[in-house]
## 1
Amino acid sequence: MQMAATHDETLRQTNVYQGDDARWEAVKARDAGADGQFWFSVASTGVYCYPSCAARRPLRSNVGFHGSREAAERAGYRPCKRCRPDLPPRRERHAAVVVRACRMIEEAEREPSLKELAAMAGLSPHHFQRHFKALAGVTPKQYAAAHRAQRLRGALSDSGSVTEAIHGAGYKTAARLYEQSAAVLGMAPRAFAKGGAGEHIRWDVTPSWLGPVLIAATERGICAILLGETEQALLADLTARFSRARLERAEEGSEFSVWLIRALELIGRPDRPVDLPLDVAGTIFQRRVWAALREVPPGETTTYRAVAERIGRPKAVRAVASACASNPVAVAIPCHRVLASDGSLRGYRWGTGIKRALLNKEAGK
């Protein structure tokens, strides 16, 4: 089903640029999405270009359109030196550069400097950082820190020594890791190594317009907002997620009560912003997906493919869907705003009925 939807979406995108009038509109708009869909030539200069070319706009009477770069060259035109239409589209070239930089960061024994990464890409440090962040969603330094954190998670699970794991993950000193551990792991390194043992999580189940909802928090923020049919099922879900943490039903009057009220406000009015601290851990990829989801405004929707393209991983549609399914905080990370390519509601881990209800609520229906 996913493959068929992807094929249909590709056809729709291609059909947008059918006809000379539509193609001329794309040229006037310098639409980068049209790059690779068609090329245009300019009779007065003898060159052919991508639709997004930043050169001065030619007269319409001098413009011709071609379905391939080869067709443009057969017609006697040479490639523009500014937009380089004889090479892959700029977005693809930039994506390839970012992928190479990510591999360089992941495989290096020490963190490469911004200058070294930019030199590898053949760009200035400023332009490289701008392209990297636009595609990856984070700076090269943030990506390197997240990669070390991911390596640390694996090392802590496999190693008998926390110190060995820390140094093996690329941290120069244990002190440096412990300073960052709350942001990196969501809990202290030794607690993480023991599967969360020693972590104190308070929880409560309360009714809502969506049915029973379980809200749980560490000392740092909300770590779970779970939807279900019964308190027993919700508690079983929480226990499975935090099997070695100390789970305790929250008492009234604690700071948790304030977070509980804010979480219920968010569930009751998902169209309004609510100041709600979150303490969720995930892989680099999951966190990039979740960050992208939080940028989708209430009342609007996106698709798994659009999210994949937004984070610079256009082929990772299924992985984006998996990251949405792994979301531990319903509504706070609004995975309900993601639809399939054909506009259907499939794929919501708490059921399409709840997904439809949330979308209708946000749309004021």
## 2
Amino acid sequence: MKGFKLSSREYQENDTQINIDTYAKKLSIGQGQCTIIAGPCAVEDRDGYLKIASFLKSAGAHALRGGLFKPRTSPYSFKGLGRAGLDIMLEARQLTGLPLVTEIMDVRDLDFLYDNIDILQVGSRNMQNYSLLEELSKLDKPILLKRGLSATIEEWLLAAEYILAGGNKQVILCERGIRTFEPYMRNTVDIAAVALVKQLSHLPVIVDPSHATGHWKMVAPVARAAIAAGADGVMVEVHQDPDKALSDGKQSLTPESFSAMYQQLMEIAALNKTRID
């Protein structure tokens, strides 16, 4: 067997399905579902987040994303509201019933994130933070594992193996682009990796076209390509006024752009299901 034993098709032939059950909403990721996770890059304020959360619920999104802790390149950039933003996200979940996704950067934050967040995200910078992965492996909680900035597919799957080996079988892989020589996009989206990983592994795979491209006009085309290639969903950034966003406004969709993209993705997903059936 390969080094990534537990995540391999040899270990488990059938696709893994991750089931999330909040008090108001049930969500399944994998096994032919097309899951759309959406929201602003960061939770900025109560009114703005609740407004965009309500829109996303009505537009068909399946889960809400929102950064509480943002690993910014510059220490002077907005790094999120931290614990103060959690109450805002919880209010948004109560309002919409949608599961919550946020990034965990430090094991010390598990004491308040574990009981409140439905899916914990490991960002690309922490993909090989093995101490963090080992702590997450002990949880009964879905983990969304982003591919590292320069990680190979094998390194990505081996990072997932750390979580699986500790007993947590709820791992969702997220392709978010890798760093190359190309300057026109934030990162280079590896669509082929989606198709390959779906062959190598039984774990669900989603794509983050917002961080992958860095340009909002590229988000919908890459999202369509991801679903066509077999991805189990996408995670996109949506902001009611991207020009005023405190982080990643250039890659954030407007509500109107999100609605148009959503319809396109559902059509492609339905076509994929017809081909499978």
## 3
Amino acid sequence: MLIAILRRVGLSLIIICLVAVLVFLATEVLPGDALDVFLTSDDLMTMEAEDIEALRHEYGLDKPAVERFWQWFSGVVVGDFGVTFIDKTPVSDVIWDPLLNSLLLATVITLIAIPVALAIGILTGYYRGRKADSMVSSLAIIGYSIPDFVIGTLLIMFFAVWIPIFPALILVFADASVLELLKVSLMPAVTVIIGHVAHLSRLLRVGFIEAMNCEFVERARLSGIPEKRIVFRHALPASVIPSLNSMALFIGNLLSGLIVIEKVFGYPGLGLQLLEAVDKREVHVVQAVTFLGAVLVIGMNLLADLAIIILDPRVRSHKHE
């Protein structure tokens, strides 16, 4: 088991390094360099060539690409993503509050979505083939098929325009308190939950049905074990294991998937900060947000793999591990 864990950790570190290379190259393949992307056509017309070269030297853009990548990546390892072009503010200071806000929203979504998906998956799997199963499954397919921005717009129409319970647009700053953010995070959270709970519950339903049809469940029933204990003590853990990777992907993709939702509601998170950085041509901010989103996905997949290794004896005893 230790070898399998070390192998997964080593593979994740390699993938993170490859992601860093890809994120850096994504700006290098553009015509010109980061300064050309930042400067507008009016800036290029009014500035002298010597001034542009001085700026390029100031930001280290006149160095070879390999040297610039190593300087950027060595800073990323210690949390230094460089400075912004406009006001030379450290990128880590720019994205810190939006990152915390997005993590708060992602935590709220996770704490609601996972238990709801588990409950729906267990109920529909246990009562499979019945009218309730068909109804819930149909609603799940509909919810999964509707894009998040459509669900968000409908919620705004219902609960902000027609029934003014919640504000149509979130008007809090990025450095707002946790309590203020929690008050305005319900509709964005519900928007994401409606679409993604449907997918997770379908996966859990399939896993639960397979677990309930296994031999160990039949032996438990023949031994006289109560049905409730069979469901929660034996079938449920076995049904969750195949869905761990999907749950990890769901949690890991929340930061990148919240971009549209944060734009729709005006939530001051990392997605909204990324859109503003693209609009202002702040390449360093775009690099930082993209890299952090990829690292989160890789980290959540690593945790899911480690959980599977620990919980599933078949993986621990596999000869290739």
